[in-house]
Design a protein that fits this description.
Blueprint lengths: L13 E4 H4 E3 L4 H6 L5 E5 L15 E4 H4 L4 E4 L3 E4 L4 H4 L2 E3 L7 E4 L3 E6 L5 H8 L2 H9 L1 E2 L6 E2 L1 H6 L1 E4 L2 H45 L6 E4 L5 E4 L13 E5 L2 E6 L7 E6 L8 E5 L3 E2 L3 E5 L7 H10 L16 H4 L3 E4 L2 H44 L4
Parallel strand pairs: 3-8, 15-19
Antiparallel strand pairs: 1-12, 2-9, 3-4, 5-8, 6-7, 6-9, 10-11, 13-21, 14-20, 15-16, 17-18, 17-20
Helix pairs in contact: 8-11, 9-11
Length: about 375
């Protein structure tokens, strides 16, 4: 440990370019020398290279003669790193292991590192997994947009700390244990996050399916009408006090409003197609969204919003690439609802549960962020000689 503990002094550490301690891109001729062209080897396309998965798990095989021409060669113990955007920035990285005949081929977008005897392959894996390495590489990418690759010069010259091998292995063992614990904590937190959301959805379903006495059923077209807002291009938009609502939610502000009071609006087209929102106040509503008008029954705005979102209006949209809902597509949708006072009571209970759900979601999201930050901190400590 740099400042004490069970490790060696950091003065015993050396810093060397990756190219000095790794063979980068081992030659394919090795594979041809070891096995015949008909023999099977592991095949690992880019989608099979994991993120936060130290040991790569090969699932496909192909004859050597089918892959030796245009694919990248690697063998058991090599470390693979994606070099193309966005895979590089996302941290696609892994150690090749348990390959068929000890040989693998995969994407031409892999950089293959074969560590020298002075470098433990897991030490190299953890080093390459650091966010600071990915950030530095991303800043030095070249190529066309969407096909940028980290430069060969950046990879070969990038300095890696090389403490004595037993020290590398000691630190790797610490990271393994810590990261296993973090992975377990993240899995539990993500499950709790899903459970919090599921609890709210389950309550909605129970209320809307186990309806009490006095509920009525009516087609949407007999309850109210949907009317789209007014067209407003980005050129016509003027900065002002009133939010502009469209098919993608809030899209800036405007100096005028065309809707005020208590309203239910629904995305008509766009990312939030079918999403209902309860709006109280003055807004500009674009023609990419509907407002609910011409009520034939009494509705509480909050209750109606919960009901419409429960009905999943997006599933009634036409077109898959750019979903669009219309009055005609929703006219026959059957709505079930009680009298106004009961609607208000139900909406109030939903509000309380939703607020608690959002509180828990925020708590769990903060915990997930803290766990990710802990991993970054441990990696920093590991490679600065402080573990």
């Amino acid at each position: 440990m740099g400042g004490g503990g069970g490790g060696v002094s950091k003065s015993d550490w050396q810093s060397k370019p990756l190219a000095d301690v790794c063979q980068i891109k081992p030659p394919k001729a090795e594979a041809r020398q070891r096995i015949s062209g008909k023999a099977l080897v592991s095949f690992v396309p880019m989608e099979d290279l994991g993120i936060d998965q130290k040991i790569m798990v090969p699932t496909q095989t192909r004859p050597l003669e089918d892959v030796a021409g245009s694919y990248t060669y690697f063998a058991d113990g090599d470390v693979l790193l994606a070099k193309i955007t966005p895979c590089f920035e996302n941290g696609k990285l892994g150690i090749a292991d348990n390959l068929t005949n000890g040989i693998g081929f995969g994407s031409s977008e892999y950089i293959v590192f074969r560590p020298s005897p002075a470098v433990d392959k897991e030490w190299l894996y953890y080093f390459l997994s650091r966010e600071s390495f990915r950030t530095g590489g991303a800043e030095r990418m070249s190529g066309a947009v969407g096909h940028k690759r980290v430069s060969k010069e950046f990879i070969e010259s990038y300095p890696i700390p090389v403490p004595p091998l037993p020290e590398q292995q000691r630190i790797v063992a610490i990271l393994d244990e810590a990261f296993d614990g973090i992975a377990t904590a993240k899995a539990n937190t993500e499950k709790n996050l899903q459970n919090a959301r599921a609890l709210f959805e389950s309550h909605l379903q129970s209320v809307f399916t186990e309806r009490g006495e006095g509920w009525v059923e009516k087609p949407l077209g007999e309850c109210f009408r949907l009317k789209s807002g007014d067209g407003l291009t980005s050129k016509a938009m003027k900065a002002g006090a009133f939010p502009v609502f469209g098919g993608n939610g809030i899209a800036g502000t405007h100096d005028e409003f065309n809707l005020s009071g208590d309203n239910v609006i629904i995305g008509r087209v766009g990312a939030l197609c079918g999403n209902a929102r309860h709006i109280i106040g003055k807004i500009w509503l674009t023609d990419n969204a509907f407002k609910v008008v011409d009520y034939c029954h009494e509705f509480d705005g909050a209750f109606l919003t919960y009901l419409l979102n429960y009905k999943n209006l997006r599933s009634y949209a036409r077109q898959a690439a750019q979903p669009v809902i219309s009055n005609s597509s929703l006219r026959d949708l059957v709505l079930q609802f009680p009298v106004l006072a009961e609607q208000q009571r139900i909406a109030a209970s939903f509000d309380v549960l939703l607020k608690e759900t959002q509180r828990l979601e925020s708590l769990y999201q903060r915990k997930l962020t803290a766990l990710d930050d802990l991993k970054k901190f441990l990696l920093h400590q590991a490679f600065s000689g402080q573990l």
